[in-house]
Predict the structure.
Amino acid sequence: MSAAEAPAAGAPASRRGLAWARRRRALAGYARAYAANRGGMAGLAALLLIAAAALAAPLFIGPGDLSITDAPGGRFDPPGAGAPLGTDAYGRSVLDLVVWGARISLTVGFLAAFVSVALGTLVGVTAGHFGGWAGNVLMRVTDWFAVLPALVMAVALAAVMTRSTLTIIIAIGVTAWPATARVVRAQTLAVEARPFIERARALGGGHAHVMLRHVLPNVMPVVLAQTTLLVAEAIMMEATLAFLGLGDPATVSWGGIIQDARTAGAISSGIWWYMVPPGVAIAVVSLAFTMCGRTLESVLNPRLRERQ
Amino acid sequence: MTAPAAPAAPDQPAPEPAGPVLSASGLHVTFAGRGGRAARAVDGVDLEIRPGEIVALVGESGCGKSTLARALLGLVRPTSGQVAYHGRPLDYRSRELKRFRERAQLVLQDPSGSLNPRHTVYDAVAEGRRIHNGATPDEQERVAEALSRAGLRPPERFLLRYPHELSGGQRQRVVIAGALILDPEVIVADEPVASLDASVRGEILRLLMRLRDDFGLAALVVTHDLGLAWNIADRIAVMYLGRVVETGTVEEVLSAPRHPYTRALLSVLPEAGQEPQVLAGEPPDPTRIPGGCRFHARCPVLASGRAEAAGVAERCRTEDPGPLPAGGAADAACHWARAQAAGG
């Protein structure tokens, strides 16, 4: 009896410890596979650099630097000692603007991607699990959202609601989810066909148990990769909306800078340093997220890994 | 909530009489097929599983035995007829079904697929208990106890393993431990050893028999292997094209088979010592069940003229011998066998 009790008493702590050790080992394996992919590492390095710059921005950009009325530089100074990337119509340093803009662009990108992935996962798992009548209705709704032109939909939403960053996040979030829903539903159907789902049902597990304990952990890798890819899409969408003048006018974002450059006549007067840096920033961040997403996808999906 | 405790009381005295734990009566399961042709996977079955008894359900693939097993567990809803648990018809409302599933467990053919690859052995075994009792402080002891009852000793060595780190036999023991943790009255095992090595098969079968002997567990073992049925079962039901065509104790059925189909199945066993009898005709198709006796198109007795000699050939072609009653007596749904029994 004492022999039986000893492991029972001593085990919980070690059980949790061991489980964590296993998880760490699995993560280390994924990290090694990820590190072997050069594109993924380049994307990750670019993202870390940009994120660090965005986070540290308040340390070297004072409130006066971004003020329209008392910015330090002159009007349209070309790149030089004072401002490495020149200045805009109000004398603000374009470099400062781009770094500051990263804060909004990344925030909107992450939150919008999160909203749309959460929505897509919810719809996808539900449609895949219940199938039949309810699943069909959900997928028809998804189809309906998928065929709506996302930009037009987002423009309409952003125009109707108050102009704020939150509006942009919601507008992107509710238009970008159908792709996730389809991917997650397909994965759910594949998982539901496996015998352990039948075993869980025979054990007495209800819909919630099957969906949360069995389906969700098995679709999570797909969801994670999908999220990373969607962040790039959301950043582009945010820039587009801001360029169309639907962003929050009180904040600095990359799309907004290009829009300001256009209205200030930078294109016709050849002031390239006003437009190119934010454009390049958008392209670099989107590319970096896409590279990270593709690499994650191939690391987390063993079938893709085998093909390489 | 006192709901889980209250119904347990009427459940407890019920096993005392030797009434069946699980029974099917007039069970039909029909699947809508492509092109509007319905597949009658289970076509009128009466079957009883009594406490402490292992019943083998034997038949070739596609005869509906897995569908019958799933219908008995409420995983497939019958088109007509009913499944009864301790004489009470199964209630398909989710709360009632959940309570029933605490008492009746499923073991599947493929132990690798029936364990979630992302769950440890501990999670897999504790799953049923968490569903029905929530997380209790004695959970770990119970998991360890279930593992050792299923023959995985010492249990501590297995708790944190993942399914892919275990052998096929160990995985099947984990699945069985996951069923045992709920102290079920009956286990339905669908081809429990078909995907295992011959050396491991014996161990799993001995485990099932020991569970019957030590804990009075009833079991329905679905198999296509008559030798396996011979080794572990008390009673046997031979199924052909959605219907039980012969039942009886293992000795009755396997040493003195009456139905030509059972005879044909037995003749191909290596130890049968007789000329293997390969059945002619096309394999059975549940979307086109022939009229008359459903076996008549492939029946060697009818083909060889012995049915003609016994004067039943016409009935074989036109008259359905009907489903067999669930009672214990040995019986075969065969005009010729009945004529032989009446004549001799």
